[in-house]
From TrEMBL:
The lineage of its organism: Bacteria, Pseudomonadati, Pseudomonadota, Alphaproteobacteria, Hyphomicrobiales. Residues 143-209 form the Multidrug resistance protein MdtA-like alpha-helical hairpin domain. Residues 345-408 form the YknX-like C-terminal permuted SH3-like domain. Belongs to the membrane fusion protein (MFP) (TC 8.A.1) family. PANTHER family: MULTIDRUG RESISTANCE PROTEIN MDTA, RAGD PROTEIN. Residues 263-333 form the CusB-like beta-barrel domain. This is Efflux transporter periplasmic adaptor subunit. Residues 96-248 form the Multidrug resistance protein MdtA-like barrel-sandwich hybrid domain. The keyword Transmembrane helix applies.
Length: 416
């Protein structure tokens, strides 16, 4: 092939029957310049956005530093002088007596049964003891004999006195021998001794007769106090025994016009509890009715195992609605011995430092550690850390710290 002149050479070259177009050098530089311009513009926009975002972040940080949050607060108030404590209790009878036989024999009559209301001294049953009646008749006859013997001894004594009074002047004058005088004196002393023996026999027999009369009185089984018969263990004709070790159980009687309630008061509530403290008893099965009473007896010593104080409350029960053995609740009104303050439970902060509250003073939050005396649910009683009138923050923010500035929300001040 014959070479071509460079200037006259066309841009297209035919190779293997195809046409290849060669790039022009001037167009490549234009593309490079355009890409550089685009890159420069992008960098400019990026730098501008970066500085804009930094300014916004700085503004937000400054706003956060200067932001004073609004908080709700509640005023601390002293706890009431009376502590109302509600505890489970059990009712018992005021007086309960098991009546046993004091005379051996057969039940002749039975006047009462279970559930009967009786009065003091009312006849419950009569025990027939025929041999006791015979013993009493024999003892009465013996007493009569002894009294007759006493009269005889007294007559002999009187005779001895008269004889000595008559013989004494004659002995002194020598008309009667001194031996006779001695006999008269000794006879008088013997008769005095005989009267003493006879009188002692009479007294002993009278004592024996009183024992038999008392045993006869035991044949009449009577109620020791007003109450209700709760148990009966005998019927007419039953054989009963009366001895010191195996007397027959006859009846059980309960005094029901006054009911005792036994309650175990925990240690933290027992201080301040004394006889005379008012109480109110409620029974779940008797809704809508309360039974007022008074603390009458306390154990004066805590049970070592449970750290509780046994307390008894007397409840008037004139209509007999309350029965012994009933589960109930007792509300005690105990005078407070140690002062405390009521704080809303929403103000409590619990973390690694223990229990705390945040108190607002002059727009500054101060974190104070507290000790809780009682948890009452919506509020707690604290012993220290706060004082009357302090404003505690309700639901304090997590980021709240000592010295943080806060703003009290309008109309958000109240009592817990």
């Amino acid at each position: 092939m014959k070479p071509r002149d460079h200037l006259d050479q066309p841009d297209d070259t035919v190779m293997n029957g195809t046409t290849e177009r060669r790039p022009r050098r001037g167009g490549g530089w234009l593309l490079a310049l355009g890409a550089l311009a685009l890159l420069t513009t992008g960098l400019a926009f990026g730098v501008q956005g970066y500085y804009s975002r930094n300014r916004e972040l700085a503004a937000v940080a400054e706003q956060a530093r200067n932001f004073i949050p609004q908080v709700r607060v509640a005023a601390v108030r002293p706890s009431d002088d009376i502590v109302q404590v509600s505890l489970p209790a059990t009712t018992t009878a005021y007086d309960v007596a098991d009546i046993f036989a004091r005379a051996s024999g057969y039940i002749e009559t039975r006047e009462v049964d279970i559930g009967d209301k009786v009065k003091k001294g009312q006849l419950l049953a009569k025990i027939a003891v025929p041999e006791l009646d015979d013993e009493i008749l024999q003892a009465q006859a013996t007493l009569g004999q002894l009294k007759a013997a006493l009269q005889q001894a007294q007559a002999n004594l009187d005779l001895a006195k008269v004889t000595w009074q008559r013989d004494k002047p004659l002995v002194d004058q020598g008309w009667i021998t001194k031996q006779q005088g001695t006999i008269d004196v000794q006879s008088l002393k013997a008769q005095e001794a005989a009267v003493g023996v006879a009188q002692a026999n009479v007294n002993a027999q009278q004592d024996q007769l009183r024992v038999l009369d008392q045993q006869q009185a035991y044949q009449q089984v009577v109620a020791p106090f007003d109450g209700v018969i709760t148990q009966r263990n005998v019927d007419i004709g039953s054989l009963v025994q009366a001895d010191t070790t195996n007397s027959t159980f006859l009846f059980a009687i309960m005094q029901g016009d006054v009911i005792r309630a036994q309650v175990f008061v925990p240690q933290d509530q027992a201080f301040g509890l004394t006889p005379g403290v008012k109480a109110v008893l409620q029974v779940p099965e008797i809704p809508g009715r309360t039974f007022p009473g008074t603390v009458t007896r306390i154990a004066d010593a805590l049970a070592p195992g449970t750290r509780t104080l046994l307390t008894e409350i007397d409840i008037p029960n004139p209509d007999g609605v309350l029965t012994p053995g009933t589960y109930c609740t007792v509300e005690l009104q105990i005078p407070r011995k140690t002062p405390s303050f009521s704080v809303s439970a929403d103000a409590i902060i619990f973390n690694a430092d223990g229990l705390q509250v945040a108190v607002v003073e002059d727009g500054i939050a101060h974190i104070r550690k507290i000790s809780v005396a009682r948890d009452l649910g919506k509020e707690v009683e604290v012993r220290d850390g706060v004082k009357k009138g302090d404003l505690v923050i309700l639901n304090p923010p997590v980021e709240l710290a000592e010295g943080s500035k806060v703003q009290i929300s309008p109309a958000a001040v109240g009592t817990p």
